[in-house]
Amino acid sequence: MKYCFGVDIGGTSVKIGLFCEDGRVIDKWEIKTRTEKEGVNILPDIAASLKKKMEEKKMQKEEIVGIGMGVPAPITEEGIVNGTANLGWGYKNVKEEMEQLTGIYTATGNDANVAALGEMWLGGGRGHKNMIMVTLGTGVGGGIIINGKILTGEHGAGGEIGHLCVNYDEKEQCGCGSFGCLEQYASATGITRLAKKKLAETSEKTILRNGPVNAKTVFDAVKEGDAVAKDIAAEFGRYLGYALANLAVATDPAVFVIGGGVSKAGKVLLPFVEKPYKERAFFANANTEFALAELGNDAGICGAAKLVLG
Amino acid sequence: MKYCFGVDIGGTSVKIGLFCEDGRVIDKWEIKTRTEKEGVNILPDIAASLKKKMEEKKMQKEEIVGIGMGVPAPITEEGIVNGTANLGWGYKNVKEEMEQLTGIYTATGNDANVAALGEMWLGGGRGHKNMIMVTLGTGVGGGIIINGKILTGEHGAGGEIGHLCVNYDEKEQCGCGSFGCLEQYASATGITRLAKKKLAETSEKTILRNGPVNAKTVFDAVKEGDAVAKDIAAEFGRYLGYALANLAVATDPAVFVIGGGVSKAGKVLLPFVEKPYKERAFFANANTEFALAELGNDAGICGAAKLVLG
Q1: What ipTM was assigned to the predicted interfaces of this complex?
Q2: CA distance B75 to B88
Q3: Are A197 and A92 part of one and the same domain?
Q4: Is A82 touching B (CB cutoff 8 A)?
């Protein structure tokens, strides 16, 4: 039996998993992400943690297929980042540095893309090789898997689908500087924005007026049959469904996997997205499946492991 | 020196090229596409033509790396079509049938995707491995190349970018049944439509009122400095540029290559697309290059050859 490490670097902690080749997780732990001094300690800290684990488990280097790493920044096929928002890194050859620190083959990817790969391998996209994952969190992230491989793109910015323009008439600006990005409607913050607008426009009765308004309370109200909440969910779903129809005509996936905090609403969410998707899908893509993500916070370490298992 | 064949199957003729491994074309010819009887003769006719050429050139099977084929239909990674608009074929395993007929390794792809691969190898996308080709003809076709390989997708329908929705308010229907597809604005027919609308709306003086109105006369008038023609070109460019910005955020190409009949207008066309592209592009994709296709009708046989040269 051979093993590998899946490493998911975040801005506050690094999640690490030790996997068997067949996908079983043997061990899982976290270390702190030391971002001070331009993040100079991050990779050495990870290398030390992996070394310690190998000693603990009495594993030889030869038993380790490789180290897969998800990085919260655009990262090229060659493992190079040109700056990060949360880690302090400027230019860094992550792959080369990690291989020098450990003497073990290392593969890298963007964290959202790597999470998508994880969901394809062991989660909501299981059994498929062409998949789009949409992560509905504070923002909207994504990952596109083509023929079992991450679509990395020229600058490591493939799958940044939160910034698809879905409304050319939008007057409010997105965090990226543009207007009408999917993220402005389909993220947790976006849904809250749609909800507040709707509540200001209508005098209809709704349980949403009784407490805090956010993505969770909107979908909770949908489950109660609240008509205003359903209208808000329909608007969210129209933006997301139309965007996915445009992605499908370009990349022709077998399945869409929807994850992130918003997806915790559960299966109730899917028809709100599927219906407008089908209205706008090109005929060749009309029957693309929809699924919920299944791995939660473990998607990153799973996908990172899959990077080296191939 | 080894050789390969590049075959581009069209509805009326099959273009065939004999290539050296290094990309040089040694010979180039056409045969008729016999679509009658559900197209049963098409592949045997091609196989016979290749055999004849090998005898003429005194080539042995062992000297042929393979046969690459572009097919005018969605075709899976495995070489299977499930129906064609122009060839008469229903379900057909093109790869398997061709290998049985010739005893030579065969690789297949959709014709628009294969033409994109050709432009990457020897044309407007030379030197790049991440590319989107847009073919502006009677319709709008396309091909997406990721890491040097065609993005085929689950149903062989990857890169069908003519059916990206770019206008959710459109009332006229696209040939595909949907509304607001890129093809309705950026194809030769689409540009004619935009031009006729514009001429009906404005009383401004324009040389376009002196003769036939079509994509060619519009761009000819642009070259003469005609203000109305420039407005029409700007509208065309806005739809196309915005669509490419959305494609870039998903697939992060190094270069867009613009081909097809409309692109014969030449370099005058590019700024009309680049300007709105830059207005809408995600920052990571803002500097993606624009180029014109260079291979014309030979893009198909070149890309087909590249399919087997890898």
Answers
A1: 0.93
A2: 15
A3: no
A4: no
Alpha-carbon span B300 to B277, nearest angstrom: 27
Q: Are residues A16 and A135 in the same domain?
A: no
Q: State how far residue A164 is from chain B, nearest Cα, in angstroms.
A: 5
Q: What is the pLDDT of residues B84-127, one digit of tens each?
A: 888 999 999 999 999 999 999 999 999 999 999 999 999 999 99
pLDDT of A132 above 90: yes
Residue B284: list chain A partners with CB under 8 A. Answer: 74, 155, 157, 160
The reply to whether residue A160 touches residue B282, judged by beta carbons under 8 angstroms, is yes
- Cβ distance of A178 and B282 shorter than 8 Å: yes
Token pair recorded at residue B132 = 């989107």
Domain shared by B105 and B169, yes or no: no
φ/ψ of residue A60, rounded to 5: -90, 155
CA distance A118 to B26: 47
The 3-state secondary structure of B128-163 reads: CCCEEEEEECCCEEEEEEECCEECCCCCCCCCCHHH
Tell whether B101 and B230 lie within a shared domain. Answer: no
* Distance spanning both ends of chain B, measured CA to CA: 16
Q: Are residues B290 and B302 in the same domain?
A: no
Token pair 């009332």 is found at B171
CATH number assigned to the domain comprising residue B95 = 3.30.420.40
The residue type at A307? L
Q: What is the pLDDT of residues A260-296, one digit of tens each?
A: 999 999 999 999 999 999 999 999 999 999 999 999 9
Q: Which residues neighbour B262 within 8 Å (Cβ) at sequence distance 6 or greater?
A: B136, B137, B186, B187, B188, B191, B215, B219, B269
Partner-chain contact B242 A168, CB within 8 Å:
yes
Average pLDDT, chain A: 96
Are β-strands A149-150 and A140-146 bridged in parallel, bridged antiparallel, or unpaired? antiparallel
Q: Are residues B58 and B31 in the same domain?
A: yes
Residue among A144, A154, A165 whose CB faces B246 most closely: A165
CB B177 to CB A77 under 8 A?
no
Residues B142 and B44 in one domain: no
Residue A164, Cβ density class (10 Å: 0-12 exposed, 13-18 middle, ≥19 buried): buried
- Containing H/E element for B28? strand B25-32
d(CA A48, CA A38): 19
Judging contacts by C-beta atoms under 8 Å, the chain A residues touching residue B144 are 250-251
Task: Work out how many domains chain A is built from and give that number.
Answer: 2
| Integer Cα distance of B76 and B82 in angstroms | 9
Report strand pairing: A140-146 vs A131-136: antiparallel
Strands B91-93 and B80-82: antiparallel
Q: Are B94 and B67 in contact (CB under 8 A)?
A: no
Residues A238, A206 share a domain: yes
Which residue reads 């036939």 in tokens? B212
Pairwise CA distance, residues A67 & A6, whole Å: 6
Range of the domain at A162: 127-294
Which residue ranges of chain B lie beneath pLDDT 70? none
